[in-house]
Amino acid sequence: MEALKVRIYTLWCWTGCGLSTAFWGTISVLCSVFSGGGNLQHLCMRRWSRDNLWLSRVRVEIEGLEHVDPRRPQLYVANHSGLHDILSLAAHLPVQFRWIAKKSLFRIPFMGWHMRRSVYIAIDRENPREAARSIIEAAAAIERGVNAVAFPEGTRSLTGELGKFRSGAFALALRAGVPLVPVTIEGSYRVIMPGTLQVNPGVLLRIKIDKPIDLSSYRRSEKNRLMEEVFEIMSRNLDELRTRRRPDEEREDPLFRWIYGRTGRPDYSSLLAKASKS
User: Fold this and answer.
1) DSSP 207
2) How far is CA 52 from CA 14, 91, 106, 253, in A?
3) Residue 148 in contact with residue 42, Cβ under 8 Å?
4) Is residue 277 predicted with pLDDT exceeding 70?
5) Cβ neighbour number for residue 5 with a 10 Å cutoff
6) Which of the four pLDDT bands, split at 50, 70 and 90, describes residue 48?
7) Can you list the positions of beta strands (E) in 180-255?
8) Count of beta carbons in the 10 Å neighbourhood of residue 148
9) pLDDT higher than 60, residue 278
10) CA–CA distance, 41 with 119 (Å, rounded to integer)
11) Band of the pLDDT at 75, cuts 50, 70, 90?
């Protein structure tokens, strides 16, 4: 019976996600007729993100909002272990911002259309020359007052561990000369683990926004030094956020209790093993 409930809930969640994506993607494209800069489209993304957090029964705890400065542009860099990193930042980061994303994502129906019309920043990883030009264009946009968010790992982690950083986001930060803000997210990989479609409800996702790093003491050639500093900050924060996880915190969600009762729970170990092999 438990397995049947998991399948029913997962189907319901993905169906709702698809409908929400089609609806808000269409509204976003229509809004782009009136909002060439992407502000209305960003509000559509925020509403879409909140819908999908609710569908997947994810709760978000966020700290460090005092480090978000609405008066000046900042570049936020976050670790990435699942779709819900994107949803949680879009729903809870209290400023207009634009994603820095790989170019292939812009080809996805509805979501890709929204991204193009929202003036997101595409990076072509297959073409180094185009990637360099994208960084120059992105730096110019940030200097004009646009906040941006990047995932420096370049792809999502399969296990929730912090992956190796790519240098693009740090080269961009040094070129733009704006404060770089490390953002650490814990728990996203447990909602939908790589290699599966199963949605695990009740996950409490924790976000820590760290102090902005002033880049005035860095030269453009010191991106490796900056990468190492940010990696150390995020690694330390990730370890600290994991210690806050309570043994049975998912059971606070009523839908989780409907599926698993008083004692059941998802087999995270098996799902994680499957993710590691995928």
Assistant:
1) E
2) 9, 10, 20, 16
3) no
4) no
5) 15
6) very high
7) 180-186, 204-209
8) 24
9) no
10) 9
11) very high
For the entire predicted model, the pTM comes to 0.89
> Residues 48, 22: contact at Cβ < 8 Å?
no
- Confidence check: pLDDT of 130 > 90: no
For the chain, the domains span 2-272
Q: What is the phi/psi pair of residue 71, to 5°?
A: -90, -15
Architecture of domain 2-272 in CATH? 3-Layer(aba) Sandwich (3.40)
Distance CA 194, CA 267 (A): 14
Question: Which pair of tokens denotes residue 126?
Answer: 């297959």
Provide the residue type at 205 as one letter: L
CA nearest to 101, candidates 145, 148, 165, 40: 148
Q: Exposed, middle or buried by CB within 10 Å (0-12, 13-18, 19+), for 264? A: middle
Apex 248 CA angle, 50 and 234, nearest 5: 60
CA 193 vs CA 158, 249, 264, 267, 277: distances in Å: 7, 18, 18, 11, 12
Phi/psi at 234 (5° precision): -70, -35
- Cα separation, 263 vs 11, whole angstroms: 23
Cβ(254)–Cβ(5) below 8 Å: no
**Model confidence at 257, in pLDDT bands (50, 70, 90)?**
very high
Pairing between β-strand 59-63 and β-strand 180-186 as defined by DSSP bridges: unpaired
pLDDT mean across residues, the chain: 87
CA–CA distance from 223 to each of 73, 98, 101, 143, 171 (Å)? Answer: 20, 22, 19, 18, 6
